[in-house]
Backbone:
C-alpha cells in the first residue's frame, strides 16, 4: 500500500472525525436548554394519580381561567410517594435552578430548605389578606425565617378510623360506642372471632406505622404528652406505653401480608369487605368515593377512639423558592392558591379540606362537610409526625428508620422506645 | 469481530511502513508531531476522552472532594475545610455495617449461585437435548426484562396470602412464609429473584465458551474412559475459566448496585429491615436527608468496593497483554 493512498484515506477519516467532534460540541450546546420567560410559572407537584390528578387539574384550570395572562407550566412528577418529586426539587434547588413553586409540607419540613426559600409575607400573605382568612395553625406552619415561605392549599385529617359498615354489622360491633383504645381492641377481637375479615387493615411501611403510632399516642397519652414529645421533651414511659399498645394492635389484629403491601392495596380489603377497620389519612376516602361506595351505608369513619375532640392536622402547601425565576407570576399564583376559589376547586376533588375558615361547604360531599365542621370545632389540632409538620425531615427519617428496623414485625418495644427517645 | 481484528492489523502494518519510511529524519519536530498517528487520530478519541473524563472521572473526583466536606441541606458546599469525618462517621454507624454486610452477602451468594445455576443450564443445553434452542430462549428471556417489571412479578409471587410461592409450599403443608416481610427471609428472597433473572446470562456466556471447545477433546476424554461428570470436571470446566472470570466481574458489579430491583420491590429507598444495601442507604442519606457529603462518602466506598472487585481482573488482563 502506497503512502499516498493511505494519506487520502486518512483525510477522509479526519473529516469524519472532525465532523463527529463538531456534532458532539453542538449537542453539548443543546444541553444548556432554552431560557424560560419571566412570566412563565413553573409549578412542580406530585399529584399524578387518582384523586390527586383530578384535584390538580381543577386547581390549575381555575387559575388559568382567572389569570389567562400568566403562562402556566404545570409539572406533575409522580411516583414513589413524592420521592421523585422531592428528589427533583432538591436537585434543582441545589443547582440554582429553582422552579416557581413546588408542592410540599409546611411546618418543620421547611427547615431542610434553609437558605433557599424566599419571603412572600408582603407580596402574598399581606396583599391577599391570608393571615386572617386561614386558621392559626396553618398560618404558623407557613412561617419561616421571620416571614412566610409557603401557602397552604388544603388539609387532610389524620385521626379518622375508617371502617366497612357491613363487616362491623356482621360482627355486631357498634363503632360509636368505642371511646378508647381498649374498647377498640375488644372490638377487633370480636371481629376476629365473629367474621373472616381482617380486623385492622395495615401496611407496615415505616411512615404508615409512624402515623398510627401518633394517633395511638394522642389517644392513650393525650395531647400534652404528644406535644412534649415532638418538642424534644418526651416522657420515656409515655413513649413506651404507646409502643406497648401499638404492639398489641399490630401483632394480633392486622393482615398477614402487612409487611409487604402498600396502603392502597390494604385499602382494597376495606372496600371489598375483607377487612373491618383501617387507620389512614383521609385520602383513603377519595378511593371509596371513586368506587361509588355510599358514605354511611357502605363505608364510614369514626374519630380514632380517644381523640374525639382533636383534629389530626396535616397540611399541603405550595413552597416559594428564593431566587425565583418568575417572582410576579408566582406571587399571583400563590395569592390565588390561598383564596377561596382555589381551595374549593382543589380540595373537593383531593378529599381534603380548605385551611381557610370562611369557605362554604356547598361544593363538598357529606363526609368532607362533616370534616370541615369538625375542623372548626376541634379543641386541639396536633400536627402530624409522619408528614413534616411536627419535626424536620431528618428527624422524621430517623423515626422511620427506628420503626423500620425495630417495629415492623417483629415488634421490639425496648429498642423502638430507646430509638424514639434518641431521635427527638 | 474477525473483520475488526483484520482492520486493526492493517492499521498496525501501515504504521510500521510509515515509521520505517526513512523520511522522518528530514522533517522538523513540529511536522512530525503534526503527522503523528497520535494527533491525527485525536478527533476520534478526543471527544469521547473529554466527555468520559469530565462526566465519569471528573464526577468521581468531585464526589470524593464532596465526601471530605460537611455539606448538607442546600447551598454551596464549603471546600475550605476538608477532612475524613464522614468516613469516620460511617465506621461508627451500625446501619452502615448492616448495609455493608447485606451487600457482601448479596454479592457472594448471588454471584456463586448464578455461576452454578448458569453452568448446570449451559451443560444441559450443550448436551444437544431436544428443543435446546427453545430452552435457551426461555432461560435467557428474564434477563431481557426490566427490573421494574420483574420486581413487580416477584412482589406478587411472594405475597403472603395469595402469592404462587406460598401456594406451592402450601401443597406440602408448609408456610405461609412472609418472604418480603420477615427480616430473616427477605434477603434470601431478593437473592433468589435476582439469580432467576441473571442465571440465563451466565448460561449464555458459558454456552459460548463450551461451543468453542473442539469436539475432539470430548471424544478423547471418552476414549480415555471418562464418564460424563468426570469429563466435564476434568476436561471441560477448567477450560471455562475465562468465561467464569468475565461473568463473575459482571455479576459482582451488578450485585453491588442491585438498587433498582430493591427500589421497585419496596417502592422506595427504604427496603425492609434485613435487605438494606449500601446503594439504598446512599440514596436515603442523599435524597431523603440531604446529607450530601455523607451520601458521597457511602458512594465512594461503593466505588472502591467495585474497584477492588474489578482490579484483579484488569490486572490479569493487562499481564496477558489483553489491554
Residues:
Amino acid at each position: 500500500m502506497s503512502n499516498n493512498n493511505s494519506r487520502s484515506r486518512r483525510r477522509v477519516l479526519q473529516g469524519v472525525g472532525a465532523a463527529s467532534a463538531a456534532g458532539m460540541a453542538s449537542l453539548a450546546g443543546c444541553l444548556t436548554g432554552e431560557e424560560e420567560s419571566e412570566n412563565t410559572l413553573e409549578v412542580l407537584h406530585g399529584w399524578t394519580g387518582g384523586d390527586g390528578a383530578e384535584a390538580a387539574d381543577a386547581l390549575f384550570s381555575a387559575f388559568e381561567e382567572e389569570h389567562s395572562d400568566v403562562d402556566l407550566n404545570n409539572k406533575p412528577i409522580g411516583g414513589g410517594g413524592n420521592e421523585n418529586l422531592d428528589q427533583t426539587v432538591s436537585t434543582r434547588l441545589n443547582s440554582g435552578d429553582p422552579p416557581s413553586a413546588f408542592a410540599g409540607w409546611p411546618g418543620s419540613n421547611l427547615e431542610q430548605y434553609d437558605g433557599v426559600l424566599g419571603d412572600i409575607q408582603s407580596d402574598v400573605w399581606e396583599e391577599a389578606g391570608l393571615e386572617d382568612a386561614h386558621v392559626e395553625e396553618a398560618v404558623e406552619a407557613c412561617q419561616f425565617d421571620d416571614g412566610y415561605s409557603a401557602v397552604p392549599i388544603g388539609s387532610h385529617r389524620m385521626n379518622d378510623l375508617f371502617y366497612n359498615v357491613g363487616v362491623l354489622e356482621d360482627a355486631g360491633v357498634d363503632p360509636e360506642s368505642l371511646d378508647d383504645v381498649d374498647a377498640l381492641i375488644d372490638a377487633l377481637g370480636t371481629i376476629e372471632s365473629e367474621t373472616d375479615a381482617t380486623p385492622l387493615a395495615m401496611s407496615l411501611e415505616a411512615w404508615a406505622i409512624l402515623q398510627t403510632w401518633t394517633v395511638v399516642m394522642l389517644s392513650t397519652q393525650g395531647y400534652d404528652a404528644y406535644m412534649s414529645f415532638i418538642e424534644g421533651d418526651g416522657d420515656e414511659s409515655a413513649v413506651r406505653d404507646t409502643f406497648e399498645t401499638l404492639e398489641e394492635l399490630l401483632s394480633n389484629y392486622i393482615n398477614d401480608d402487612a409487611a409487604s403491601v402498600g396502603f392502597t392495596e390494604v385499602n382494597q380489603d376495606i372496600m371489598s369487605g375483607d377487612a373491618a377497620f383501617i387507620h389512614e389519612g383521609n385520602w383513603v376516602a377519595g378511593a371509596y368515593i371513586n368506587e361509588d361506595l355510599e358514605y354511611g351505608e357502605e363505608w364510614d369513619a369514626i374519630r380514632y377512639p380517644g381523640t374525639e375532640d382533636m383534629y389530626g392536622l396535616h397540611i399541603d402547601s405550595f413552597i416559594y423558592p428564593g431566587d425565583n425565576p418568575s417572582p410576579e407570576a408566582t406571587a399571583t399564583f400563590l395569592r390565588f392558591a390561598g383564596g377561596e376559589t382555589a381551595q374549593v376547586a382543589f380540595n373537593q376533588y383531593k378529599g381534603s379540606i380548605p385551611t381557610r375558615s370562611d369557605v362554604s361547604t356547598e361544593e363538598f360531599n357529606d363526609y368532607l362537610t362533616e370534616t370541615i365542621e369538625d375542623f372548626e370545632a376541634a379543641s386541639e389540632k396536633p400536627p402530624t409526625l409522619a408528614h413534616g409538620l411536627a419535626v424536620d425531615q431528618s428527624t422524621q427519617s430517623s423515626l422511620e428508620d427506628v420503626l423500620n428496623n425495630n417495629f415492623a414485625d417483629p415488634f421490639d418495644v425496648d429498642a423502638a422506645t430507646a430509638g424514639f427517645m434518641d431521635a427527638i | 469481530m474477525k473483520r475488526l481484528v483484520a482492520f486493526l492489523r492493517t492499521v498496525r502494518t501501515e504504521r510500521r511502513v510509515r515509521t520505517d519510511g526513512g523520511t522522518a529524519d528530514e522533517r522538523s519536530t513540529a511536522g512530525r508531531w503534526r503527522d503523528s498517528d497520535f494527533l491525527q487520530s485525536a478527533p476520534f478519541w478526543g471527544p469521547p476522552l473529554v466527555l468520559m473524563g469530565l462526566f465519569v472521572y471528573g464526577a468521581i473526583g468531585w464526589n470524593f472532594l464532596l465526601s471530605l466536606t460537611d455539606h448538607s441541606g442546600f447551598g454551596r458546599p464549603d471546600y475550605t475545610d476538608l477532612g475524613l469525618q464522614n468516613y469516620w462517621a460511617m465506621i461508627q454507624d451500625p446501619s452502615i455495617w448492616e448495609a455493608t454486610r447485606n451487600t457482601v452477602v448479596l454479592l457472594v451468594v448471588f454471584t456463586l449461585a448464578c455461576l452454578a445455576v448458569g453452568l448446570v443450564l449451559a451443560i444441559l443445553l450443550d448436551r444437544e437435548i431436544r428443543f435446546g434452542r427453545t430452552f435457551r430462549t426461555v432461560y435467557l428471556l428474564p434477563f431481557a426484562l426490566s427490573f421494574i417489571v420483574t420486581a413487580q412479578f416477584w412482589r406478587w409471587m411472594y405475597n403472603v396470602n395469595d402469592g404462587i410461592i406460598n401456594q406451592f409450599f402450601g401443597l406440602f403443608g408448609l408456610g405461609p412464609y412472609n418472604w418480603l416481610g420477615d427480616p430473616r427471609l427477605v434477603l434470601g428472597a431478593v437473592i433468589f429473584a435476582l439469580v432467576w433473572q441473571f442465571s440465563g446470562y451466565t448460561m449464555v456466556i458459558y454456552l459460548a465458551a463450551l461451543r468453542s471447545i473442539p469436539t475432539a477433546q470430548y471424544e478423547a476424554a471418552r476414549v480415555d474412559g471418562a464418564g460424563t461428570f468426570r469429563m466435564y470436571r476434568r476436561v471441560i470446566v477448567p477450560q471455562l475459566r475465562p468465561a467464569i472470570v468475565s461473568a463473575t466481574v459482571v455479576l459482582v458489579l451488578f450485585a453491588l448496585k442491585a438498587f433498582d430491583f430493591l427500589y421497585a420491590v419496596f417502592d422506595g429507598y427504604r427496603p425492609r429491615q434485613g435487605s438494606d444495601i449500601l446503594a439504598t442507604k446512599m440514596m436515603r442519606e442523599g435524597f431523603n436527608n440531604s446529607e450530601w457529603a455523607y451520601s458521597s462518602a457511602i458512594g465512594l466506598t461503593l466505588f472502591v468496593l467495585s474497584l477492588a472487585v474489578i482490579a484483579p481482573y484488569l490486572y490479569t488482563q493487562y499481564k496477558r497483554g489483553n489491554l
